[in-house]
Amino acid sequence: MKLGLTxxxxxxxxxxxxxxxxxxxxxxxxLECLGSTSAEVLSQVxxxxxxxxxxxxxxxxxxxxxxxxxIFGEEVTTTxxxxxxxxxxxxxxxxxxxxxxxxTHIDGTIAFAxxxxxxxxxxxxxxxxxxxxxxxxxxxxxxxxxxxxQEKSVHFMRRELGT
Length: 163
What we know:
Layout: E1 2-9, H1 13-20, H2 23-33, E2 38-47, E3 51-60, H3 66-72, E4 76-85, E5 90-97, E6 104-115, E7 118-129, H4 135-161
Antiparallel strand pairs: 1-7, 2-3, 3-4, 4-5, 5-6, 6-7
């Protein structure tokens, strides 16, 4: 499953990244906007000028279809590792669920570019689930959940940025 979304922003990429990588904001985003039951920045090494790596862990109780809930349980704890490359204005990330991590691979990118005087974000996500009989169901759930979370995140961040 592949998901690609684009957004226009009324801020510079640098303003976006400064907010995105603010550890306090990351926790607030999850707890106040995304409905996470827990959120913690486990580590953040580097800085926005030379690049950084952040490890974030959060728990969620999303409305899962029965087969997905049976496999993953009521609450899904995810560890997200993001690597920021300032030269490319891009973050790559992997998301690892606490359950079935060996059968579930989720990764993606967030990239910014200036186009015709506008700041444009390209968000992409790919999920591959190798669980016999339900892999496609889980992938469709991941896509729907990612789309919903991304839309909520964009709205919350725009409000924080005053755009």
